[in-house]
Amino acid sequence: MAKRILLVDDSASVRTVAGIALRGAGYEVIEASNGQEGLERLAGDKVHLIISDVNMPVLDGIGFLKEVKKHPSYKFTPVIMLTTEAGEDKKQEGRAAGAKAWITKPFQPAVMLEAVSKLVMA
Amino acid sequence: MPRCKEAVDDMHPSDPTDLDILEPAPTAASQASSPHAYLSLLPIWSRQIETSRSQTEEAIVALSERFSGIVQRIDAALSSHVQGSQGDAAAEAARSKGDLAMVIDALRAIQQNRNQLVEQIRGLMAYTEELHKMATEVDQIGFRTNMLSLNAAIEAAHAGEAGKGFAVVAHEVRSLSNAARDMGKQISKKVGLINDSLNRIGKTNEEVAARDDAAVQTSDERIRSVLARFEESTAALSESAARSRTESSAIKDEICDSLVQLQFQDRVSQILANVMRSMEDVAQEGQRAGTAAEAEAQAREHAEKMMSTYATREQRLNHEGIQTTAVEQSAVTFF
Q: What is the residue-wise DSSP string for B133-149?
């Protein structure tokens, strides 16, 4: 059965590129355009990995990550932050909130898939 | 899928509301009589930027989908190339070579069998020689027996009345010896006929064998020539397929790079969104500012707030007045 990935990003173009790459690699992808929508998606079928942007309207990526880690079913689910933020402070904030990896945009789909494959198997 | 012209039209719809945005509202123009009045233009610029941003995003999404589709089709084509024609052609060449070699082997086996037959016929010819000698000996024995019976008849005549019975026996022996000589001659004649016949079979076989040898030799050469041409064609096909794969891979890499480049729209979008928020803030705060000193303090406060909201390095450098076009390289950090 295909592993299910939640992809949270307010940029439709990023969701398109990442979504096509993930689906092409055999994953099932659920999309959300901000953190709040991402939390609503988690109420559905079990998600095995989350990829999230940081700067988003309504609820940003760090806030979303903190909420995910409070969720009893998702506190151990790996989360990858996919963002234009390259500053060390922001990275450390993500790490402290429970992110497993930090990928800076623009990203090579192959690099993202490699990180996903490492974490989804762990 | 829309054609290029339609796609361009899609991005620039002739909606009358767009014209409203391009033309500043009369109230805003009439208010532009003081520096504060110009602030009323900021929302208009903001809306223009938002329109450009959203149109760019739509176009980039469509482009990304198309490029990703091309990459997937190239992937599918590359994998079918690997499993398809090249392997099949090489396997077919090997199979054909094996089958044709079996045909040649079968022809050679037939030749060998016929050669064995010729050897057996030669063996039979040796037996007929012996039979001929035996027939000649039968004739010789008949001749001597005849001579013996003739002498016996002479001796019986010399004996007179007493030899009459013996003369009858001598006559019968002479008849038998003549019959034996006739039989020997007939055997010799038949053996000669068989020998001639075997000689003719042998010669015919040798002629047929020589023709077959030449035919097998020619077939072998032709088959080798056909196989060589087939192998050349297969090799050329494989080479062409390999070139095609290399080219396809290169095109795929180019498109993948383009997909990465298209993500700059996301960075640009973030920068523009940030500028729009700032413009909206300036428009609201500017209206409230009283004295020049208050306006200056507000501007400083606003600049600090802007700095804290930047997501990219180029935004921070631009804010500080340092010109940059370089962007951070993509990197993965595992925690």
A: HHHHHHHHHHHHHHHHH
CB–CB contact B330 A108 (8 Å): yes
Q: In Å, how far is B316's CA from the nearest CA of chain A?
A: 11
- Tell me the C-alpha distance between B215 and B204, whole Å: 16
Q: What is the distance between the alpha carbons of residues B77 and B74, in angstroms, rounded to a whole number?
A: 5
β-strand pairing of A49-52 with B332-334:
unpaired
Q: What does the pLDDT read at residue B23? A: 42
**3-class SS shares of chain A: helix, strand, coil, % to 5:** 45, 20, 40
- Interface predicted TM-score of the whole assembly (ipTM), two decimals: 0.87
Distance in angstroms between the alpha carbons of the first and the last residue of chain B: 43
Q: What element of type H or E holds A115? A: helix A109-121
Domain B101-246: CATH class, spelled out:
mainly alpha
Q: Where are the domains of chain B?
A: 101-246
Chain B contact present for A118, CB below 8 A? yes
DSSP B185-227: HHHHHHHHHHHHHHHHHHHHHHHHHHHHHHHHHHHHHHHHHHH
Tokens representing B211 are 């023709």
Mean pLDDT lowest among A40-49, A59-68, B205-214: B205-214
Q: Count H helices and E strands in chain B, helices first.
A: 9, 1
Give the minimum alpha-carbon distance from A70 to chain B in angstroms, rounded to a whole number. Answer: 19
Q: What's the pLDDT at A118?
A: 94
Which of B260, B265, B333 is opposite residue A91, by nearest beta carbon? B333
Candidates B275, B298, B273; CA nearest to B286 is B298
SS3 A30: strand
Element (H, E) at A112: helix A109-121
pLDDT tens digits, residue range A92-114? 999 999 999 999 988 888 899 99
Which residues 26-65 of chain A have a CB within 8 Å of chain B? 54-55
Looking at the whole model, is its pTM more than 0.80? no
CATH of the domain at A72: 3.40.50.2300
Q: Which of B263, B330, B332 sits opposite A17 (nearest CB)?
A: B263
Which domain covers residue A96, as residue numbers? 4-121
Q: Which residue from A minimizes the CA distance to B328?
A: A86
Total domains in chain A come to 1
